[in-house]
Specification:
With about 200 residues, the chain is mainly alpha-helical. The chain is about 60% helix and about 10% strand. The chain has a two-stranded antiparallel sheet. Strands 3-4 form a two-stranded antiparallel sheet. α1 runs antiparallel to α2, α2 packs across α4 and α4 runs antiparallel to α5. The radius of gyration is 21 Å and the shape is flat.
C-alpha cells in the first residue's frame, strides 16, 4: 500500500506518491476528532430541544382549541434542524469540515490531498457508512432472533449494544497510529482527517 506515514514520531502524513512536490500534513488527534463529534451531537440535541420547547410553548398557550397533532411537532423540528443540516452539508462539501471540525481546526481530505467534496464527505463518509452500519446491526439482531432462537426480550435489552459495535470499533481505530488513525469511514471514502 503506497499510503504510508513515514515519520510516526512527528505524526506526519506524506503524499509524495501523488504529487511532484512533497506535501506533509499533521494528522488530527483522536481527542480532536472525538470532541468534534461531541460538538456536532450537542448542537443537534440543542436544536431538537429548541424545537421541542417551541412545541410545548405552543401547546401551553393554545386555549380552548383542538390540541396540536404530531405534524406540528415535526414542523417545529424542521424549522430548527433544516438550517443546521444545510449548514453542515455545505461546510462538509466545500471544506471537508463539519461545525465541530471547523471549531477544532481539523478537516477531512482525500488520500491525494484533495477535498473529498459532497460525494466523499457527505455521501460516502456519512450516508453510505451509517446505512451499512444500520443494516449490519439489523442483520445481527435478525441472526440472534431467527437462527439462535433467542428470546425477544433479550434482543431488546442487547439492541443498543449492537448499534454501538461499529462506532466502538471505529473509536479503537482512532488510536492506531500505524494505520494513520483512519476509521472505517476513512477507508470507505479513502480519506484521512488532518489539522488545518
Amino acid at each position: 500500500m503506497p499510503y504510508i506515514q513515514k515519520d510516526f514520531s512527528k505524526n506526519i502524513y506524506d503524499y509524495d506518491d501523488f504529487h511532484d512536490s512533497e506535501i506533509e500534513v499533521k494528522l488530527a488527534s483522536p481527542w480532536e476528532r472525538i470532541a468534534a463529534h461531541i460538538i456536532n451531537c450537542i448542537l443537534f440535541l440543542f436544536f431538537c430541544c429548541m424545537s421541542s420547547l417551541l412545541y410545548i410553548v405552543q401547546y401551553i398557550f393554545q386555549q380552548e382549541s383542538e390540541s396540536i397533532d404530531e405534524i406540528a411537532f415535526y414542523i417545529f423540528m424542521l424549522i430548527f434542524l433544516t438550517p443546521f443540516f444545510i449548514l453542515q452539508l455545505i461546510m462538509m462539501s466545500k471544506a471537508g469540515q463539519s461545525i465541530g471540525k471547523y471549531l477544532l481546526k481539523i478537516k477531512v481530505i482525500k488520500l491525494d490531498g484533495r477535498n473529498p467534496g459532497f460525494v466523499g464527505t457527505v455521501l460516502i463518509r456519512e450516508i453510505v457508512f451509517y446505512t451499512i452500519s444500520g443494516i449490519f446491526s439489523y442483520l445481527l439482531i435478525e441472526f440472534y432472533i431467527y437462527l439462535l432462537n433467542v428470546d425477544m426480550l433479550a434482543v431488546l435489552i442487547l439492541n443498543p449494544v449492537y448499534g454501538y459495535l461499529i462506532p466502538l470499533f471505529c473509536l479503537v481505530m482512532l488510536f492506531r497510529v500505524d494505520t494513520n488513525r483512519r476509521t472505517l469511514q476513512d477507508y470507505l471514502a479513502k480519506t484521512i482527517v488532518i489539522k488545518v
